[in-house]
């Protein structure tokens, strides 16, 4: 039975999820040419996964029963069936492990990755994210959804088949809350969205700009946590990811399709985490926040200092990484 426990003296929570210990671990993520007959995410292996929540078809994979498929995580961190059951004895605080944990299987083909998928298919994946978040928003017990992708063993992936995950929570995590608080304070002081101002400055200077199109911009953030960290953001202000129109989704997908080969050329095959940062369900009309994707390559080692201080040490300035990626893009 999952449960959320609050850390002593901190506005931070830990999910206790015993079932996660039973996850399968196909840790050879080299994407071998042979189809993994035992892979639970491959077509014709649907019987060994929980029932499909939703699926999407496409002309690109017309010969397959589905192109993208969403299922409940077989080893969930949180469950929709759990009661809230808050508990506090002044020192310790917990609530029941209510929430949702889903897997979005992003291709029917076992031997693939985002780098080999078309922009059209990447847009289909982003559209699936939007639909699943919109559906979970209808559960009034849930306050926000965290959508993330772990690629490679060093980034936390335990299965090679291309996929992402969605966890909906009955609370707003402290990391997101701190980001929202900072955005709200900036808006209060200036009347403007901080991320919009950041985008304006980066597009004017071009110093940390990587690539852009009419819909979206890819930049190396000013304080990158690791070498070649990239943010992808809507060019115009958008607070609600679930309300993103097809042209914006297509533009984001186009940038991802162009960016990942540049990444591979610059730093080689690398594990990475991708996280969607967006507003909680009850704040979707607030004007101070701008949703975006953060891509964090696992090029270094997170060790004791980082864990104890939550301060990352990055040997490659954002300006250097962005310039190198721009140079690679100009040769294509």
Q: Can you describe what's shown?
A:
There is one protein chain. The chain has 332 residues and is of the alpha+beta class. The chain has 2 domains: 3-171, 2-Layer Sandwich (HIT family, subunit A), CATH 3.30.428; 178-330, HIT family, subunit A (2-Layer Sandwich), CATH 3.30.428.10. Helix content is 27%, strand content 20%. The protein contains 6 helices and 14 strands. It has helices at 119-137, 174-190, 194-205, 246-267, 304-309, 318-330, and strands at residues 3-6, 13-16, 54-56, 68-72, 87-88, 93-96, 100-105, 144-151, 163-169, 209-212, 216-219, 230-234, 272-277, 292-297. The strands form 2 sheets. It has a 10-stranded antiparallel β-sheet, with helices on both faces. A 4-stranded antiparallel β-sheet has the order 2-1-6-5, with no helix packed on it. A hairpin with a 6-residue loop joins strand 1 and strand 2 (13-16). The longest helix is centred in the C-terminal third of the chain and has 22 residues, at 246-267. The termini are far apart. Residues 27-34 have low confidence and may be disordered.
